Amino acid sequence: MESYLRERLAELGYELPPVPEPAGSYVPAVRAGGLVFTAGQLPLRHGELLYTGKVGGAVTPGEAREAAAFCAVNALSAVLSLGDEAYGGIRVVKVVGYVASAQGFSGQPQVLNGASELLGEVLGGAGVHARSAVGVAELPFDAPVEVELVVELSPG
């Protein structure tokens, strides 16, 4: 599965990064039965935030969509960090996204489409999911977007 994800992401212009280091006392992902829950992932590329600031302010909605896609890539990396267990595939069950929103900005669903569309392009039907898009006042390190996934692992 990891080699497929790497290849598919490369076709789309993304690189599957090493799992980002936690910024606190938690782990990037936890498996519970057949489900994996990721910690919230920020839009990091090569260890640096892609953008900082609030969406609808310093960050445009288009930039935030791009940031959400990077969050999804980092979340997939977190899922794969549990690679010591054999599985044949993954299906995204739920995406929760948080958007640091400037006053009056209400386009959180469109921002989170960046993550949802990337997951669909990478995983096809297995990337279709339920989703929550939440506007918040602040995110860690002044990130504009944070995304977490719940995925189901299928036996190998």
- How many helices? 3
- What CATH calls the topology is 60s Ribosomal Protein L30, Chain: A
Strand content: 25-35%
Main beta sheet, described?
Answer: 5 strands, mixed
CATH C-level: Alpha Beta
Strand order of the largest sheet: 1-2-7-5-6
Provide the CATH superfamily.
Answer: RutC-like
Assembly type of the chains comes to single chain
Uncertain regions spanning at least 5 consecutive residues:
none
Give a brief description.
With 156 residues, the protein is α+β, with helices and mostly antiparallel strands. It has three helices and seven strands, in the order H-E-E-E-E-H-E-H-E-E. The chain has one domain (2-154): 60s Ribosomal Protein L30, Chain: A (2-Layer Sandwich).
How does this structure look, described?
By secondary structure, the protein is of the alpha+beta class. The chain has one domain (2-154): 2-Layer Sandwich (60s Ribosomal Protein L30, Chain: A), CATH 3.30.1330.40. 29% of the residues lie in helices and 26% in strands. The chain is built from three helices and seven strands. The chain has helices spanning 2-11, 61-80, 108-123; strands at 29-32, 35-38, 44-45, 48-49, 89-100, 130-136, 145-154. Strands 1-2-7-5-6 form a five-stranded mixed β-sheet, covered by helices on one side. A two-stranded antiparallel ribbon has the order 3-4. Strand 1 and strand 2 (35-38) form a beta hairpin. The protein is globular, with a radius of gyration of 15 Å. The model has no long low-confidence stretch (mean pLDDT 94).
